[in-house]
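Quick question, first post here. What does this chain look like in 3D?
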Amino acid sequence: MIIRRKDGYFVISEKGKKKLGGPYKKRVDAERRLMQVEYFKRIGKK
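> Answer (accepted):
Ran it through. C-alpha cells below.
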C-alpha cells in the first residue's frame, strides 16, 4: 500500500505494521518499489 505524507510517498504493509520503503519524491518510484516487494514475496513461496 502506498501512502502520502508531507515528506513524500511511503510503501507500507497492508496491515500498516511494516515500513517497506520511502520516502520517495514521486509516486512512480513508490509504485516501482511496491512491485519489487510483491515480486520477492511471490518468489519466496516457490
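The two ends are 23 Å apart (CA to CA).
The chain is about 35% helix and 35% strand.
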